[in-house]
Every structure is written in structure tokens, then in C-alpha cells.
Amino acid sequence: MEILYKSTRDDSKRVSASYAIAKGIADDGGLFVPEQFPSLEKSLEELSGMDYKGIAYEVMKLFFSDFSEEELKYCIDNAYDSKFDTEDTVVMSYVDKAYYLELFHGSTIAFKDMALSILPYLMKVSAKKNNIKEDIVILTATSGDTGKAALAGFAGVEGVKIIVFYPKGGVSAIQEKQMVTQVGDNVKVVGIKGNFDDAQTGVKNIFTDKEFNEKINKAGYRFSSANSINIGRLIPQVVYYVYAYANLLKNGKIEEGDLINFVVPTGNFGNILAGYFAKCIGLPVNKLICASNENKVLYDFFNSSVYDRNRDFILTTSPSMDILISSNFERLVYLSCGGNSELNKKLMNDLKEKGSYEVTAEMKQFIDESFIGGFASEKQVSDRIKNVFDKTGYVLDTHTAVASAVYEEYRKTVDDDNETVIVSTASPYKFTRAVLSAIDSTEHDEEDFVLVDRLNEISGIEIPKAVKDIRNAEILHKNVCEKADMKKEVADFLSL
């Protein structure tokens, strides 16, 4: 079956997967969605006998139907290799009545590696398939993890330049050091005076600025995205949901057809949406539990039908989730209204102009069939890190702790005995100060790499290579700009 893609804001045009990957975001500002959902071609029992690469091929071939087997396997084989420090790319650990799907064993110790390790190869093949002659300029806004993973993936890739914008003061010290020490003539990192939503909005505005796009096209460039708004980022994330189910089946924890839950710490909604896509292609999923931190715009939506970003932006110890405009939620809204692009466009315009929108009762019912929301306060996150460590010796990062705390509350209030997988999104070493403060309540005013060593002493968990490599690395990117000057930073980088 050939799967074509359409925009959430204008479904009159259909494009191939490779075109959507190369483009990143539709000209109208909408996001590409598959015209229809394919179905898994192998049984779950068959998939349980495969390694991660095998499952990746079986899932991605369904969505990237214009890629040949040779092209897709080239991308997969180059992505999921020795960059990951574990035997089969991801690890599943059973801790305190839940399975933790550890997605942080890649080169930048965050779940973004799962998709950003393959995106450069998908982009390279897509550009060739669509006869793109211009150099591709990747524009990315990051709340902490996407930036480094994208930089690592695209650094040194011929025909590609990448510019990452991050909220200065809105990421952890380790996250920032990872980005600003990135080497490569084709990379640029810029801190902005604002929050992630400001960075994300600025990038979207550049994408839809027709005059500026014409200017860069004449200079031999074209824009694309490495955020999860790019379908080439989103689809590879579907794989690990299928892998998690296959792993439980392989190890006799469930029987084929049993329903399971996933708890996902959520900011931009891409990670949990990938879980929904997995359900749509046939994975037996009961509930996708959307776990928010104190920026609980999604939790409030699930309880009210109103998406409202008109609130204070809170800096938390889980900065990758400090987001009030969850871009990928637009894809779910579009699906919930039966693919009515005009209605979806109106709702997104309401969000832009008024800061809020309300979905219909029918749309809310559609969403509630698969999703449920929860949130955890900063105290609950800290308490959960300590409790799990004291009880089991297992160390949660702050984002995974949000999901773990939400699931703990869910178990108390909902009668649900389905096996549950908590999506673990980052190494605790990315957030050592917050993690250590939770485990050991004494004051921690030491330099961050001293805290890295302290966490190693307390936990016994090996310090990841990604952290060791940046300990004494030179800071190469020092630019900080006003959010209104993001376009100028792009123009300067491209010598326009």
C-alpha cells in the first residue's frame, strides 16, 4: 500500500513520504499526516523474534512506502549501530510494578537519539529521491534534548547546515554544555532570551516567511526541520512502542493480543503521539497516559476540552517538558475531527491569536478513547526519585520521574491491571543537580561535574561517555539573541 501525506491545514494536496521528510513542515504551516494508517504485516509473535533493526524495518516500511528496501535498510543499519551502548539499542527494566523502556542509551543519552540517529540518513535519501539540488538548512527549536541529538546527527553531513535555538537559562547545565561544545563547520547553536515556546514559534515563523524563504532559495538553500513536527522524526519513534510490546511477549510477560498501557512524560506531544500511531497500526494499547509537569496545559485539556496556553510559564527540574504549545497535538486534533482541515486550521488560528481553543464533544470523546492525562508537582517528582532509589536502587531522571509519579497516582485511582510501560526518556546524568538533590537532601552548590562524580559514587551507575566527553570540552557557541532576532541569526549563518 502506498502511503501519501497531507497537511493538517489543507488536505487538498498529497505528497510522498520522502517529500514530507525533506520538506519538514507544509507551506501552510500545517503538519504532515498519513492519508491513512497501514497495518502491521507481521504478527506480534513474529515481531517478538526480531531485534530492534528488524522491527524498525517492519514498522517504517509501512509509512515510508516510497523508500526501497535497500534505501530503508541503509538508513536503519547506519542509525542503530555502535552509537548505542547496549546490545539491542534499548533496555527494558522492571522496577516497582512497571516496566521502564530506557531510550537513553544513544550517543546523547536522551530518547531523541532513537529518531535523530536515523533522520540524517532519511533526509539524505529523501533529497536524492526528490532531486533537491539546494543545501538543506535544518532549523530546530529545542527544550534541551532535541538540539544536541540533532547536532550530533547532522554535524559534518555534506549538503546540510543546522541551526539550533534553545532557551537560555531554560535547560540543564549538562544539556547546555552538550550543545555549546558541538564541533562542526555546518552547525550553529544560539541561546534566545525567552522560553521554548518563543524559540519554537520563532522557528515556525521563519518556515512560513515566504519572502525570507525565497531569499534563501535564491542563495541555494531550503529549510527543513529536525523537530518531531517532521514526519521523519515521528515515525521512527513508533518503532520502540512495537519493540516494547514484542519484548514483553518474547519474555512471557504478556500473551499476544493482551492490552498494555504506556506512560509518557510529555511536552511537545511527539513521543506519545508516536505511541498512538503504534496503536493505529495494530498494537494492542489500552491507555496512553500523558504525564505533564507543572506546565500542565495538556492535563488541563484532558479535563476540560479547552487547550489554553494563557498561563504562567514555569521553569521546572524537567526542562524538556517546559512547554505550553505542544506542536504535535495538532496532529491528534486533526485526526479527532475526522480530518477536517478547515476546522483544524481555525482552532490553530484561535491558539495563535487568542491563546486557546475548545474542541467539540465528539472530538474529545475520540481523544479520550486512547488518552488520559496526569501531572506531577515538583515535590512529587523529587519524592518519586528518592522513593524509587531508596526502595530499589534504580535512578530516575526528572522527566521519567514525572511519568513514574503520574503512574503511581493512576494505580491508586484507576482499576487497571494491564501491564504498563513507562517511557524513560533521559539519563539521570543529564539532570544531576535535581536528581542528586532528590536522593540526598543536603545542599548541592558544587559545580555540575562534581555532582556527576557524586551521583556516580552514590548510585554506582557508570558515567556515560556523552558526559565524560564534554567535561573539559571547549565552548564553541556563545551567541545569545533576542527572540525577535532569530531570523537575523539564520541570515548571518548563511551569509545572506
Strand order of the largest sheet: 4-5-15-10-11-14
Outline type:
globular
Secondary-structure class: alpha/beta
The number of distinct helices, counting runs of at least 4 residues, comes to 22
CATH class of one domain: Alpha Beta
Do you know the CATH topology of one domain? Rossmann fold
What is the alpha-carbon Rg in Å? Answer: 21 Å
What ranges have pLDDT less than 50 throughout 5 or more consecutive residues? none
Helix content: 40-55%
End-to-end Cα distance: 43 Å
The largest sheet, given as strand count, sense and whether it forms a barrel, is: 6 strands, mixed
Portion in beta strands: 15-25%
Tell me what the CATH architecture of one domain is: 3-Layer(aba) Sandwich
The total of beta strands comes to 16
Question: For the residues shown, what is the average pLDDT?
Answer: 95
What can be said about this structure in brief?
The protein has about 500 residues and is α/β, with parallel strands linked by helices. The chain has 22 helices and 16 strands.
Name a few traits of the molecule.
single chain; 496 residues; Rossmann fold; five-stranded parallel beta sheet; 22 helices; 45% helix; globular
How do the strands and helices of this protein lay out in sequence?
Blueprint: E1 5-7, E2 10-15, H1 17-23, E3 32-34, H2 44-47, H3 52-63, H4 69-79, E4 91-95, E5 98-102, H5 113-116, H6 119-129, E6 135-141, H7 145-154, E7 160-167, H8 173-180, E8 187-193, H9 196-207, H10 210-218, E9 221-225, H11 231-250, E10 260-265, H12 270-280, E11 285-292, H13 297-304, E12 306-308, H14 329-336, H15 341-354, E13 356-358, H16 361-368, E14 371-375, H17 378-392, H18 398-413, E15 420-424, H19 432-439, H20 448-459, H21 465-470, E16 480-482, H22 486-493
Helix pairs in contact: 1-6, 3-4, 3-11, 4-6, 11-12, 17-18, 17-19, 19-20
